[in-house]
Amino acid sequence: METQRSQLTMMIKPASAACNLACDYCFYLDTAHHREMGVLPLMKNEVADAIIQKSLAEAKHCSFVFQGGEPTLAGLGFFERFVEQVALLKSEDHTVSYAFQTNGLKLDTTWARFFKQHGFLVGVSFDGSPRLHDLHRFDAQKRGSGRSVAATIALLKEEDVQFNVLSVVTNELAQNIKQAYSYLVNHEVYYHQYIACMDPLQDEKSYLSPQSYGRFLKELFDLWFASWQQGKPVSIRFFDNLVGMLLGYPPESCDMGGVCSANYVVESNGTIYPCDFYCTDDQLLGSIVTNSFAELDARRTELRFIEDSPNRIDDCAACPWRVLCRGGCKRYRNETGYKYCSSMQEFFPYAIQRLEIVARSVQKQ
After folding, report:
1. What is the C-alpha separation between 48 and 90, in angstroms, rounded?
2. Domain Radical SAM core: where (predicted)?
3. What is the structure's pLDDT at 2?
4. What percent of the chain has pLDDT over 90?
């Protein structure tokens, strides 16, 4: 079977923005509230089937990434049927991978064994330690979820599920990163992602200052480099990407590329958006049910979503760190420029020599 492209990633929201938590900094619920139709009903089978059929027809390797909201609210049966349909429809030429981002509250042994059986990479949202986690990640009754998520992480380890931890960086986490890092490492969690907390779309509130983020990056880097020197490396996505970039590889994290990529985010009703951070009415590309990929791509071009994504506000051309920073993800920019420009200008001189040491070591290996 001839396909148009070698690889395709579909970011799928089977439960839309619905969630069993009420985290005060949730960017996606904020995004949904800025749509005419906010939180949508659970994904129906015909939408899931359209995703599978059109994706397999479009690419040889398909990556299906489930996120939310909270995707477990769609029920385990939804995902069991999804992987069954993929297995029925894919050819010998296809390769398929799965990823799943969750708050972990509904996971049990049955879920864990399903993930293990089908090779899911699971991302668990956990802000470093139960105490820090509970500052922002609570339910509608303001009850913290940290201990429950920590128990889920222990379960995933016990069932040998491949997983990483995603922590949202707020001022509080930035001020206590040593505690958070130590907690994770002491609990044998060695794959970390740290995401700078996003400001609401139309609100003056900010959960993370550039000053706090700059200090955070330096302190976290010290911890990461010390672990590497001790022969006990910890994977931190941002630093791993920087090492790869120093070796001439493109960053695998799209927010580090300096220009947006061709993404497809599928809401539960089948509507497609160009980015998880831009699932708003004005950025709608079409529907997986009624539109072809060519039509979705044409709409993205019409919106100039990729073409207008490079940073043309800050003086990146004159910046010595432009090759590594690349102007930052546009979701962190406004009319004054990249919010964390000063953070990066503080971090890179501090870390570059040690990053190069790690890069040279990797190159020798």
Report:
1. 15
2. 2-226
3. 54
4. 96
357 token code pair: 């040491």
Amino acid identity, position 123: G
| 69: preceding bond cis by omega (within 30 degrees) | yes
Is 134 one of the catalytic residues?
Answer: no
CA–CA separation, 174 vs 304, rounded Å? 35
134, 276, 314, 315: the catalytic one is 276
Q: For residues 303 and 306, give the distance between their C-alpha atoms in angstroms, rounded to a whole number.
A: 8
pTM: 0.96
